[in-house]
Amino acid sequence: MKIICLQENLKNNLNIVQNIIGKNLTLPILNNLLLESDNGRLRISSTNLEIGINTWTSGKIEREGAITCPAKILFNFVNNLPNKKIELEAKNNILTVKCENYKASIKGLSADDFPIIPKIKNDPIFEINNLCLKEALMKVSGCAAVSESRPEISGVFFSLNKEGLKLAATDSFRLAEKTEKMEKIKQDHSMILPQRTAQELIRILGEKEGVMKVILGSNQVLFESGEIQIISRLIDGQYPDYRQIVPQNFITQTLLNKEEFLNAVRIAGFFSSKVNNVKFSIQAGKMEILSQDPDLGENKTQIQAEVKGKEMEIEFNYRYLLDGLNNISAKQIFMGFSSESTAAVIKSAENDDYLYVVMPIKIS
Amino acid sequence: MKIICLQENLKNNLNIVQNIIGKNLTLPILNNLLLESDNGRLRISSTNLEIGINTWTSGKIEREGAITCPAKILFNFVNNLPNKKIELEAKNNILTVKCENYKASIKGLSADDFPIIPKIKNDPIFEINNLCLKEALMKVSGCAAVSESRPEISGVFFSLNKEGLKLAATDSFRLAEKTEKMEKIKQDHSMILPQRTAQELIRILGEKEGVMKVILGSNQVLFESGEIQIISRLIDGQYPDYRQIVPQNFITQTLLNKEEFLNAVRIAGFFSSKVNNVKFSIQAGKMEILSQDPDLGENKTQIQAEVKGKEMEIEFNYRYLLDGLNNISAKQIFMGFSSESTAAVIKSAENDDYLYVVMPIKIS
């Protein structure tokens, strides 16, 4: 293989593929990237056996061929080269990289031993603007369960129907749901995307404009945008019918200034005890936020609130509230309560695109 | 004690004092700050028994008195308050802090048990612009020995004579020296400042303009600037006569573009083996930088150099070179070699204010 390409293009694509590669001692080829000439372009691929990534870089193919080489050293080297032409040449499992006065010879492994990244040939089930997808993933993925004891909630749930696309995640203590309106959806679909893939998509999407095609395979999904493909396994199982825990009727409804509320919750967190509990007392025209730690002391903040319905006291884990509030960019938020012991809803006062549902801490 | 002051002033001063406080389980009062009315101002003090810090905040003293309270919770609380008037009131070892609709009661300890921060009453041995001191400390302190096996080189050496002030630090593998010209120095002085104090000074000096007075006690030093005092113990012992290892005559002298050299060394580092060794081959008009790792591969970069004297090959720990080069802001640097097995000197091609001396790795 002998290929000439531009440093900037190569650097960008190496940055996309390299992140999923860890340090694999039992299967050293998983530390490597596959570089291969592919119809007049250079294809670079990586895999951790759960996620596979392909990118294509334009360049001049002087000799067809393929090699694999350690991801980290190639990425570091190319990253520090000037933005000039780079010559990549593979011979006897050594990749030689030349750029102006810089030269490196990197020990590789045969391309024949690189794991096959599956191909999915179906039609896209939907297309979505890259930045919309990134934002939606950022707003929900933090709620997915960290433990794998219930694998079906350890990922982000995508459900597609004629109203559009809903992304949801929950760890059973709180739930986030983001809705993207979509037209021309022909068929309902759903899938559970592993949290790791969601994180990788967020990273790769960065500030990249464009459109992502989402193509569903039997137990895999392909995200394709321009010259990037991300192929991931899906989580097997039935996602819980989370809609049934989202309260529809409220005994108490409040409208709050988001920044004021966020700051009060943040401050209350400093004084909260080990279970992170903070008490909210909702009264006519105001909310009091109280927290107490037997060793440190206590804290009380009062904020203005438009309150409808009955007065109440309820406790939440302040960290869950912060997570939700940080995902809402509205000036004013709605917070609705159905009882002292059932889930509350937080959302923008203006729209329902993003719902955050949080369980209270039961006061014994 | 009852004092009213502005949030911003209080926040800034809490930020200055709180950083030296760790989590002390055996002596809980060391987790606390001392707040005390002091001639119409609020004095806040902290100590870790090695470093003590005093700051003064202007405000309205409504009742004299003192209290200590945990640093972290007070800092976090005040940091998140609006920039308005804050009322601090101490009663029965509880500090109540009020600001608009926010209120906290923090459990404190009696001020009587707070360790005494020593006072030093001498005249300053010198004064220095804060940003000059910060820059000088930043450029040398990283070279101080990390281990305490030779305590005398685990700090920054200050030496003052009629030429000015020199700051130096070494871990016996490399040495950095920064010179500040000064006039009106009446008497020679020297001291070894602990690395931790140097780091704390760098942090506190931040972008703070003004002048620092340096006042020497018997085994302590006081840095005083405006309403801030930092009192530190000094390291006992004789600092090595480092001037004798700084080579004065060179068999090979080179002038190099700093950025090119820095980048070549950085890249060589990726390919260097476990002892971080990189080989430098100096020839007429050029320098070759070579590194090799038996598992990864090898790298060669060639850069232009003005070379005087004989050709030579020498190896260095690339990390030590990066540290030194990153501290020099010149476009062109001088690197002088006295032999393959003795220290080399790196400095700006234009001046001698900053010297970086590095020992080679002996080629066996």
Which key features would you list for this structure?
homodimer, 364 residues, alpha+beta, DNA Polymerase III, Chain A, domain 2, 9-stranded antiparallel beta sheet, 8-stranded antiparallel beta sheet, 6 helices, 26 strands, elongated
Identify the overall geometry of chain A: elongated
Q: Class of the largest domain in chain A, according to the CATH hierarchy?
A: Alpha Beta
Estimate the helix proportion of chain A, in percent: 10-25%
What's the architecture of the largest domain in chain A, going by CATH?
A: Roll
At the fold tier of CATH, the topology name of the largest domain in chain A is DNA Polymerase III, Chain A, domain 2
Total helices of chain A: the number is: 6
Let me know the average pLDDT of chain A.
96
User: Spans of chain A with pLDDT under 50 lasting ≥5 residues?
Assistant: none
Distance between the termini of chain A: 70 Å
Work out the largest interface and the residue count of each chain: A-B, 29 and 30 residues
Architecture overview:
The structure is a homodimer of 364-residue chains. Chain A has 364 residues and is of the alpha+beta class. Chain A folds into three domains: 2-113, DNA Polymerase III, Chain A, domain 2; 126-243, DNA Polymerase III, subunit A, domain 2 (DNA Polymerase III, Chain A, domain 2), CATH 3.10.150; 246-358, DNA Polymerase III, subunit A, domain 2 (DNA Polymerase III, Chain A, domain 2, Roll), CATH 3.10.150.10. Helices cover 18% and strands 44% of the residues of chain A. Chain A is built from six helices and 26 strands. In chain A, the strands form four sheets. In chain A, strands 14-11-12-13-26-25-24-18-22 form a nine-stranded antiparallel β-sheet. Chain A has an eight-stranded antiparallel β-sheet with strand order 6-2-3-4-17-16-15-10. The first copy, chain A, has a five-stranded antiparallel β-sheet with strand order 5-1-7-8-9. In chain A, helix 1 (7-18) runs antiparallel to helix 2 and helix 3 (130-140) packs across helix 4 (195-205). The longest helix of chain A has 14 residues, at 258-271. In chain A, 41% of the residues are buried. The interface between A and B is medium-sized, with 29 and 30 residues.
